[in-house]
Amino acid sequence: MSILDKFKLDNQVAIVTGGASGLGKAMGKGLAEAGAHLVIADINLELAQATADEFTNDTGNKAIACKVDVTNVDDVYQMVEDVKKEFGRIDILFNNAGINEHVKFEDMPYDRWVKNMDVNINSMVLVSQAVGEVMIEQKRGSIVNTSSMSGIIVNTPQPQAAYNTSKGAVIMFTKSLANEWAEHNIRVNTIAPGYMKTELTKDYFAQGGEMIDTWMKFTPMGRPGVPEELQGAALYLASDASSFVTGSIVTIDGGYTAL
Questions:
Q1: d(CA 91, CA 259)
Q2: Do 42 and 19 contact (CB within 8 A), yes or no?
Q3: pLDDT tens-digit profile of 67-83?
Q4: Quick check: 94 pLDDT over 90?
Q5: Is 167 designated active site?
Q6: What is the largest CA-CA distance in the chain?
Q7: Strands 13-17 and 37-42
Q8: Nearest alpha carbon to residue 133 among 191, 81, 188
Q9: Fewest CB within a 10 Å sphere: which of 111, 191, 198, 199?
Q10: Catalytic residue among 25, 29, 123, 167
């Protein structure tokens, strides 16, 4: 098998949570273009369906939308049952759903802290357990978690203790699960993006100001990334090209954490 063949995902089935837009959509598109069938799992069904239709039209591979609250046990296990009925297998899981709030710790209500933990880390635990049952039975699978450089360093100047804490937990969860599930031939890795220009953040960058100036000052490449710049790493970690890679953090941040 050639090295290029190892990147192919023909007929493999991938679930992408939070896959209807932003980073999840970009990484999902990369998997679809490599041959995978996609399950776009998102709380916004209308947007998820539009993304699924786009992927199918662009690649010819099957893509379906699934409305899922990734913090809800019943929703998650129903999604897994639906995917099993539709495709019969699950080869790849991208845990990508997440939220962020710039709130000083002393001003953050406890219920908002819990919400950040539920969406950013507890959902990954829940979805990984549900999908893991299928992968363990198959004796094969690749799980990729979206963490952040914020799980490695503390961002400035914005206050976001909840986000940073949750993303640090994602990294340790990734390493721990990789160790436990290696015996099942399931690889678990994480992509840690830096500042990315998405639909949610493009207005920040357009407006500029002290916060953006600070972000770019600490980014050696002097610019934000774009979601498509995560596709290469996403495909690598999902595919057999990374068959000896597990428990790893792939940081894509324009050099921010190298300082």
A1: 36
A2: yes
A3: 999 999 999 999 999 99
A4: yes
A5: yes
A6: 56
A7: parallel
A8: 81
A9: 111
A10: 167
Q: How far is CA 107 from CA 102, 104, 162, in A?
A: 10, 5, 12
In this structure, is the dihedral angle defined by the CA atoms of residues 188, 64, 71 and 16, taken in order, positive or negative?
positive
163 is catalytic: yes
Tell me: the pLDDT tens digits for 19-45?
999 999 999 999 999 999 999 999 999
Verify whether residue 25 is a known catalytic residue: no
Q: Which residue reads 């290469």 in tokens?
A: 232
3-state helix, strand, coil in the chain (%, to 5): 55, 15, 30
pLDDT beyond 80 at 144: yes
The active-site residue out of 163, 195, 236, 256 is 163
Find, among 206, 132, 219, 227, the residue nearest to 176 by Cα.
132
pTM summary value = 0.96
Please give the structure tokens belonging to residue 82. 């639906």
**Selection from 174, 169, 187 nearest residue 118 by Cα:** 169
